[in-house]
């Protein structure tokens, strides 16, 4: 007899909708910021501006992964949230330790202080939501 697999809760339902909305808002904000910085003053702080562009890309892909809610979407969102958390912590530490390394701020500078620390909290919430909506234990 084959046991039915427990149902998986959808990542795009309930509080997941708010999480997706925040990811989309940050995708728009980071894309706009990075686009303007890259177009107008890229030579001043190329690493910082490219990191903002990377953050924007991660926010977009994470939102899509959470919205898709299937196996692939969950995996994509898990990877994005994990990379995002490592990135915001690493850039946060580096931006505080060596201010010359980032002559201009990125989305993740000082752990996202320019955005109310939401860039630090968002991947934690994303990972928590992915854990919370995993398959229910049998």
Automatic annotation (TrEMBL):
<feature type="transmembrane region" description="Helical">
    <location>
        <begin position="76"/>
        <end position="94"/>
    </location>
</feature>
<keyword id="KW-0472">Membrane</keyword>
<keyword id="KW-1133">Transmembrane helix</keyword>
<feature type="transmembrane region" description="Helical">
    <location>
        <begin position="48"/>
        <end position="69"/>
    </location>
</feature>
<feature type="transmembrane region" description="Helical">
    <location>
        <begin position="114"/>
        <end position="131"/>
    </location>
</feature>
<feature type="transmembrane region" description="Helical">
    <location>
        <begin position="18"/>
        <end position="36"/>
    </location>
</feature>
<keyword id="KW-0812">Transmembrane</keyword>
<protein>
    <recommendedName>
        <fullName>Integral membrane protein</fullName>
    </recommendedName>
</protein>
């Amino acid at each position: 007899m084959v046991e039915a697999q427990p149902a998986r809760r959808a990542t795009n339902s309930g509080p997941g909708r708010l999480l997706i909305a925040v990811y989309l808002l940050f995708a728009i904000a980071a894309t706009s910021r990075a686009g303007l910085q890259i177009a107008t003053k890229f030579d001043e702080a190329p690493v910082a501006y490219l990191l903002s562009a990377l953050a924007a890309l991660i926010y977009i892909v994470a939102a899509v992964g959470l919205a898709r809610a299937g196996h692939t979407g969950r995996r994509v969102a898990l990877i994005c949230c994990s990379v995002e958390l490592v990135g915001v912590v690493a850039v946060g530490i580096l931006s505080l330790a060596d201010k010359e390394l980032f002559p201009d701020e990125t989305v993740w500078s000082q752990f996202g202080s320019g955005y109310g620390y939401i860039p630090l909290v968002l991947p934690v919430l994303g990972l928590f939501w992915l854990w919370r909506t995993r398959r229910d234990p049998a």
